[in-house]
Each structure stands twice: as C-alpha cells, then as structure tokens.
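Re: Re: token formats

Sure, here are both.
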Amino acid sequence: MSDAGAPGADIGIFGGSGFYELFDEAAGGTTTLAIDTPYGPPAGPVTLGHIGGVRVAFLPRHGPDHQHVPHQVPARANVWAMARLGVQRIIGPCAAGSLANHVHPGDFVVLDQLVDRTWGRPDTFYDEGAAHHVSFADPYCPQLRSAAVDAAARCGITAHERGTVVVINGPRFATRAESRSYRDQGWEVINMTQYPEAYLARELGICYCGVALITDYDTGVEHDPGMEPVTQEQVFAFFEDNLHRVRELLAVLVPSLRSTRSCDCAAARGPLVNPPLPA
C-alpha cells in the first residue's frame, strides 16, 4: 500500500546481509508500505509491526532480495523513508569482519567510532541550497549504545562495548595489505554499509546505533597466518546461522527504548523543508 495516511513508527531497524524479514507476517498485525522519497525509492517496501508493544519500521538495507550491492545501497532514500514515518531512533545491525585478535566471529560489537574509506556515495541531504554542517565527532547515539550494551548483557550475548568500524566501499573485500593497515591503526571492525547510513540519520536528527555481528576475521589474523580470507558465502551463511541471536537482542532492546531521548542527536537536524518531514 502507499504511505499516504499510514501509521508511523517510533523505532526503525535496517536489516543487513541475510536479514530480510523481522516480523512473523503469518501471525498478522503488520503493514507493508511503498514509500516515495525525493531520492528515489528505498531498497524495498517498509514493514510496520510491533516488538514488545513498540511500533517498529523494518527495511532490509540491501533490499528483500539483496539486489543492492554495498556501494549502491540507496541510503538517502532508506533513511528518509524512516524519517517520513516519524522514526526517532534507528538500530542498524550489520555483518562485519574482525580486525582484532580479541574480537571473534560470533561476538557483537556496539560501535562507537567510524572511519570512512568509501567514495562516490551520495552522503548528504544538503548537496544544494543552504549549507548545513553537522558535528559527527561521535557518530553513534550514546543513549542507544548504552541500551544496546545492557540488552546484550541481559541476553547473555558476548558484546564489546565499543569498537571502531572502518567502512570500505565494496563490493570487493580488502586486500591483505589494506587489512594489515587497518589493524595497525587499532581499528576493530570492517564493514561496507555503516557509512553514510549513520551520518544521514544524524543529519535528520535521528538517533542511530550500529551493532555489528562479527562473521569472520577478514583476511585472517596475525596469530594464524594460514587462515583463509573471507568469502561472501561465508559471511551470508554465518549471519543466517546467527540471525536468531540478532532477533533475540532486538526483542530485548526495542522495548527498553520507551524513555524520552536524552541525547543531543535531534539538535543536528537542519532546515530541510521540501518535502516536509514530521516534527
């Protein structure tokens, strides 16, 4: 159905590689929307439902059939669609590789810093008209991060409370030399989609939390030089095998987000007025 007169949502969730459905639609209580944006269509229809009584909008960032490779994900349309529905907080689970010996496949990392190594991606809503410069010193909402760490502990999930993600353009994986360079910088996680998704949310004053599920050791780790480098099949299969743990985390995290926002994320929202978004 169209988004005209559609119900809104409080929380938005972007599904990552292998995460294409959130709700049990057979049980009913969901609505699927096709949303128009000034930046073209989102990656797919948005599904509205409830988790623990909280209204949630779900959108697979790559599309329901993974038709958008990382550097072609329509991130502006995806984030705008969430804002169009009134979403104030976005949770962005993602598959990621480890760059650190202490971060293992199966671990979760609640990201706190980001390094952008992408190029050519539309990464702002302010590429014409009035200038709007946004602070991005701390890319992830501290209130959401704290809630995610607490939820992981309640689920018994091994979750690192912080970590820096280096975002590469894709669709190729890193070379051994690149991976070694990133490790030498002390960065923990490598991924292809956290930027510009996290930044675009900030421009619209939406809180954003990146939660990485570690699927591999990228090109290997220093203590095991014989380890085979990562493949797409490995990433997809590992994420699918651990999707139940992502769902478990969300089932605990989302209902905990009923409190009023106490962060400064909303203050970053600029004077976008055409088309208007919910206040």
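Second one below.
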Amino acid sequence: MSLDKHGIAKRIAQEVQEGYYVNLGIGIPTLVANYIPEGMNVVLQSENGLLGMGPFPTEEEVDPDLINAGKQTVTTLPGSALFSSAESFAMIRGEHVHLTILGAMEVSERGDIANWKIPGKMVKGMGGAMDLVASAKNIIVAMQHTSKDGQSKLLKNCSLPITGLQCVKKIVTDLAVLEVTAEGFRLLERAPGVTVEQIQAATEGKLIVEGEIPEITV
C-alpha cells in the first residue's frame, strides 16, 4: 500500500530535529507543519515572509490575510514574526535555514532537481526554488515516485529544466525513502506492503539495495 500525501508528510516530519529552522515548499511539504512532534522546538519559515508558522487553521481560525508561499491560509505560533520577502530571502541566502523540504517533478540519481517548469505549460515563475536549492545544506524532496502515466520521476538524468545540481540529500515518495549518494539512490525504507521489486520497477535511476529494507512507520 503506497503512502498518500499525508503519509509522506508524516515521514518527513521524522527528519526534523530540535532547534531546526525549516523552510516548507509548496504542495506536500506544507503538510509537514501538521506533523511536527508535540513539544519539539522547531521554527517553520515561509519564503513570503513568515517565521514561526503553525499548523493549518480550522474553519474558525482562518485569516485570509495570513498565507504561506502557496497562498494557503496558515496559523502563527507565539513569538512568530512577519517581514518582507526581501528579508526572508536574506535569511535563505545567508544559509540560516537548517532544512528545506521541497516538491519536485524529477530528481536525478546525482541529486539534481527539476521542480519549476514544464516546457509548453504556463508557469507563474520559479518562486524561491532557485535560491533555496543554491543556499540550503540539507534538502529533502517530497514527491510521487511516478507520473500519472506510470513513468519514473527518479531518473538517471532529469529531462525537465534544472532547478539545482547535486543538491538533494533525501527523497520521500509514496513508495519509498531514498538517500542520494555518489553511486545512486540508496533505498532506506519501503512503504507498507510495497516490495523492493516494485520500487526497482518504478525507478529509472540506479537503485542501491543493501540487506533487508524495513517498512516506513508513520
């Protein structure tokens, strides 16, 4: 049984550590805010100028003026701060973010990421992706393992315009958790009920399998 988007977010939340400043990209990464372990001191950053982002609001808590970079309504926590996007990107470019969680259309076996444009389709802009991948020391990607037509999105080489080169450290998909190494994708965990053979069939890039692969627990 593959993970849904909430399962992916729950698994990525396990990578967050005490004291981290974490940037959440658009899409599945924003859901990670809902699954930070209770009592853990973590500061979530949204690139449009919010530090100290909380979980998504209930209907009673919705404030249409308080949004994240994906234009979703969010909540703030005690001690949070609002500021300009210029200050936000100064924080990003200054390498003051410990962990960046991004979505992706493709990732290569070397850790290249393509997540901002599909040729021939309208795009609003690259957003903060270029700055994030150029400045972040630790990037985790949240994505579907394959496209809607069943094609692998974990490739030998990206076919879409590149956002950043050799920058992704770890990937959590609906099928698996993988570490990007110099040799290729190292399989760390598999989704409940998903076999190594199924993951291998869904991965175009080189997949390294060593020993017994445990199931993901969320």
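Helices lie at 5-13, 28-31, 85-93, 129-135, 196-201. The two ends are 13 Å apart (CA to CA).
- S.
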